[in-house]
Amino acid sequence: MDIIGLSILKGIISFFVHPLTYITLIGAFILGLSRVKRDRRDFHTRVHDALDDVAFAIVPGIIAGAAFMVANLFLGITLPFSSTVALSIAAFLLLVTGQIRFLSPAFTFILPVVAAIFYTPIDFGSEQINSIQDGIGSSSMIAIVLLVGILVIMEGILISRNAVRQTSPRLVESKRGKLVGGHEVQRLWLIPLFLFLPIGNVEAFSWWPLLHFGEQTYSFLLIPLPIGFQKLIHHALPVPELKRNGRQVLLLGISAVAIGLVSYVMNSHWLALITLGIVVIMRATILLLHRGKNKAAYFNERNEGLVILGILPESPADQMNLHVGEVISKVNGIPLGKGTDFYTALQRNAAHCKLEVLDFNGEVRFVQKALYHNEHHELGLLFVKEHRLHNIEEAQ
């Protein structure tokens, strides 16, 4: 029991000494800073704090990692140490090059698979460095496809449950040169990946505790695995679109696990390898299908009403239970649309406002609130305003 406790402790330490842990957190913070900078350029105010991106990286990541650990205690998926090194290299390269949208397990596992098939060990003149390469050719394609499938399931759940929170409003120029609105998600999740290592891959490290199960000997390892997601939505409401995206990724992961189990029963590494290729192709297809470049913008200036592009947290609009994507048709009885300024209509009654709102079903509802002098001058609502296009072009 002491050996198990020591192995778990050193496995946890390996997570905190891994450079990728801190590179991922720094990357999340940089994403937050760039988002705040864009908010100030587009709307002259910050919508959400930069540290929110770091919190989103840590908390959901720990929950997902704990769920995977429980699953792997039953499944016992093993990877040679050399494959975990290849996985970390792939994730690092995607992170530092800013390719967040490709930080899906479907893509980051390409390098370990290619290395397992084609890599030939090189003599570096160091026993420990050489030992890292040992066993890379022994990577089980069945284990990898099961691992990828489970991680893609987790990715789908994270997209549909977490990516929908705090989507970032932004202004973009359409192909016709007009200003339209959109919502962007740039999210990093830091997953503590709990794995079993076969003894042959750590035998050079005499200080690492080993566990014996029958005739097999294993050790624990906890490595950081960043999962990334990036998407700009301008043709639809962000939450339903992201949930649909997440469901498609989730179904892909479930399919991969199902075929992986079939390959395990059949002991077919070729079926597992083909499945991995299909997962990569399908994940790339999902990326392309959700680009929505040729679709009409949802958040744009209309002849009648103003579409709510964003709502500042804890603002009057937030307290009035308004929602992104709803249309404000009247303010204090004044119809809104092109040429009608929201703030001017709001000042018709400086102490009280009454809004006529069209919800997502096209039904009218009325909301009202008393106004105070220290509150946001537009209730904390963000709209697409054509006159801001010139300012954005200057900032760029």
UniProtKB/TrEMBL annotation:
Residues covered by the PDZ domain: 274-361
Listed name of the protein: PDZ domain-containing protein
Coiled-coil residue spans: none
Transmembrane region(s): 12-33, 54-71, 77-95, 102-122, 142-164, 185-208, 220-237, 249-266, 272-289
UniProt entry tagged with the keyword Transmembrane: yes
Species annotation: Guptibacillus hwajinpoensis
SMART domains: PDZ
Keyword Transmembrane: yes
Keywords: Membrane, Transmembrane, Transmembrane helix
InterPro entries, per database record: PDZ, PDZ_sf
